[in-house]
Amino acid sequence: LGTKPAPWSTSPPRSVTNAAKVLRNGCAQLIALVDAGExxxxxxxxxxxxxxxxxxKALAGDLGIASCTLFTDWRYRLDDIPEVLAASSLLVHAxxxxxxxxxxxxxxxxxxxxxxxTAAGGVLDIVVDGETGLLVPRGDPEATARAxxxxxxxxxxxxxxxxxxxxxxxxxxxxxxxxxxxxSVYRDILDGExxx
Length: 196
Hints:
By secondary structure, this protein is α/β, with parallel strands linked by helices. About 50% of the residues lie in helices and about 15% in strands. The protein has helices at about 15-25, 45-50, 50-60, 80-85, 105-110, 125, 140-155, 155-175, 175-195, and strands at about 30-35, 40, 70, 90-95, 115-120, 135. It has a 6-stranded mixed sheet with strand order 3-2-1-4-5-6, sandwiched between helices. Strand 4 (about 90-95), helix 5 (about 105-110) and strand 5 (about 115-120) form a beta-alpha-beta unit. Helix 1 crosses helix 7 and helix 5 crosses helix 8 (about 155-175).
């Protein structure tokens, strides 16, 4: 699954940089739907339940990106994740707190989508910087925007990140690999009990 070149030729839309500022204020994910000419910002359920979604929408309005920003509900229906990711050119995972495990990154990588992610927590075990995605410092919207713009402007880079990300997702996090690891743990436990 490749990506199409970004629709702008000389400079990125201000909306990408401003969307990164929205992220700093609490949105968990940004999916740039370049082909559709809009940005979709999906706020995590815990943030929406705390009432932050209104703040994010207000900030998007203040930054002048409300007309090209779609705030979606919390998305975790397995039947539509591949469709949403297939429509995107990039997934930005900009957690403001380190996550123990970023499943959405593996989902995006499995769909061949390039990722930009915060370099903290379990993300560091999933994304290999410069190979399967780009890592950015936590809480740095400008670095997030620069990385997103870099991927969106550079179609060969986006394609390479998507390809190697997919290979890593399948090789390290695929069902067969995960089942094998769990079985290995059980074998080790049983072997240890038999030796005792």
